[in-house]
Amino acid sequence: MDMKTKDAWVRLCTVDEIPRLGSRMVERAAGNIAVFRTGDDRVFALLDRCPHKGGPLSQGIVHGEAVTCPLHSWQIDLESGEAKAPDVGCARRFPVKVEQGDVFLELS
Predict the structure, then answer these.
(1) How does 53-71 read in b/e, with b if 16+ C-beta sit within 10 Å?
(2) Torsional class of 31: left (φ above 0), alpha (ψ -120 to 50), beta (otherwise)
(3) What is the pLDDT of residues 28-49, one digit of tens each?
């Protein structure tokens, strides 16, 4: 990924470089980040770790505004990071924005 800095934000890629209803993964020592794209081109970023057993959310299936963990099928809301009932837990969210087709992630 292209890690050009703009203020406190880091440029990751273009929206088109994230598969629709899929994700890209950003590797980092403090824990990988999964950047998701919905069917209507909204972009979200979560820690790439399911709150249940640590499954890689970046390998899950995106549907609507949620991702289903590939390990035990927990559904995680992309906007809040919260597990959908009856499951309980939360994946850390990261601020993300799109400007002129470029995706920026705030890592501070």
Answers:
(1) eebbbbebebeeebbbbee
(2) left
(3) 999 999 999 999 999 999 999 9
Give, rounded to a whole angstrom, the gap between the first and last alpha carbons of the chain.
18
Beta bridge pairs of residue 93: 46
Q: Where are the domains of the chain?
A: 5-106
**Under a CB-based contact definition with an 8 Å cutoff, are residues 59 and 53 in contact?**
no
Yes or no: say if 52 and 67 are a contact pair by the CB < 8 Å rule. no
**Cα–Cα distance measured from residue 9 to residue 45, given in angstroms and rounded to the nearest whole number:** 13
Q: Tens of pLDDT along 4-30?
A: 544 589 999 999 999 999 999 999 999
Homologous superfamily assigned to 5-106? Rieske [2Fe-2S] iron-sulphur domain (2.102.10.10)
